[in-house]
Amino acid sequence: MKNADIEFANKTVVTTVSTESEAPATPSLAPSPPPADDALLDAYSQAVVHAADEVGPSVVNIEVRHKNGERQGSGSGFIITPDGFVLTNSHVVHGAASIEVTLADGRRPDAQVVGDDPDTDLAVVRVYAPKLRPARLGESRTIRPGQVAIAIGNPYGFQCTVTAGVVSALGRSFRANTGRLIDDIIQTDAALNPGNSGGPLVNSRGEVIGVNTAVILPAQGICFAIGIGTAKYVAGWLIKDGKIRRSFIGVGGQNVPLHRRLVRHYQLTVNRGVLVISVAPSSPAERAGLREGDVMIEFNGQPVPSIDALHKLLNSGQIGIEGRLTIVRGAEKLTLPITPEESVPQQ
Per-domain residue ranges for the chain? Predict the structure, then answer.
């Protein structure tokens, strides 16, 4: 041991320094800075905040008026292209004499209805304004029950309201105002109210996965959105032609998986099909002998793994043309001749 003199601020302090080992440094007791706001948010909150930030600027409010100028109602919509096409519900704008669209930044550009399809409760509106921010559209095949679902809209006129929940179920069906079954519906418990109709249902990545359309009253937590796959297909035709000219066979269906033994035995190219849950009277499906419980797997040699796929195949080119519908009935694979007819939307 030896003594060492250490000078601090012009004062001499005598301390004992060991030559055998060094004393550990005293840890700093200075307070750490407070955490940033982002650090206080859990993963769920961050997902909801991110989705709202991504899609919120694309959401619009739609006011509908009668010919005499009186307010008919209101709803929501969201921008899907940079040049101003807006997707919303048919029941929001159907029969409107005029519409007024308010953007998220408060602008009220000129707007008009481009196309309307009551059979899927979808419509496209065009707004004329610069610097528009379209929402990113997701894919129906990536949606899973239990995933986060965020609804953005304008309930009761309260603009850019965000509610969150989960995807409760897939493959639901309900009837449009025309009486036609709308298939491939998403069920969610994200709260919806009047005025939310036509707004986006969004996943945690900020991608639109559905178009909010209906609430079951007086039930709580049972809300529905049209799947984005159907919405993209219908919107494309409405933008192109202003209407949907489609064929139909007259069935209500639900997407279902196929048993692995059936897939292997018949060497099917897909492992999913469309379960027939209803057959319309005097329809092409009834005349072809289709029954409830059959599973449709092919139309004219093309696989039918989902409702969306069947809708795409039943286009205007199939009207009045005999085709071949392949089904699984029990464990038997059958091919039925069927002639689709033109679907005439009810006004």
Answer: 42-243, 246-343
242 three-class SS? coil
Catalytic residues: 91, 121, 197
Give domain 42-243's CATH number out of 3.40.50.300, 2.60.40.1180, 2.40.10.120, 3.30.420.40.
2.40.10.120
- 280-338 per-position pLDDT tens digit: 999 999 999 999 999 999 999 999 998 878 888 887 789 999 999 999 999 899 999 99
pTM score = 0.67
Which of 198, 192, 134, 199 minimizes the C-alpha distance to 163?
Answer: 192
**For 240-269, how does the pLDDT look when each residue is reduced to its tens digit (9 = 90+)?**
988 888 788 999 899 999 999 999 999 988
Domain 246-343 CATH class label: mainly beta
What tokens does 71 get? Answer: 């307010």
DSSP bridge partners of 78: 59, 87
Structure tokens that stand for 45 in this block: 């909150």
Residues 163-191: pLDDT tens digits?
999 999 998 888 787 766 787 899 998 88
Beta carbons of 157 and 218 less than 8 angstroms apart: no
Cα 282 from Cα 301, distance rounded (Å): 25
Quote the radius of gyration of the chain (alpha carbons, Å).
29
Contacts of 181 (CB under 8 A, 6+ apart): 173, 174, 175, 252, 278
Model pLDDT, residue 346: 54
What are the distances in angstroms from CA 281 to CA 108, 170, 245, 284, 291? 47, 26, 21, 9, 11
Calpha distance 224→261 (Å, rounded):
34
**How far are the Cα atoms of 127, 268, 272, 290 from residue 258, in angstroms, in the given order?**
44, 10, 5, 18
Alpha carbon distance 18, 291 (integer Å) = 95
3-state secondary structure of 156: helix
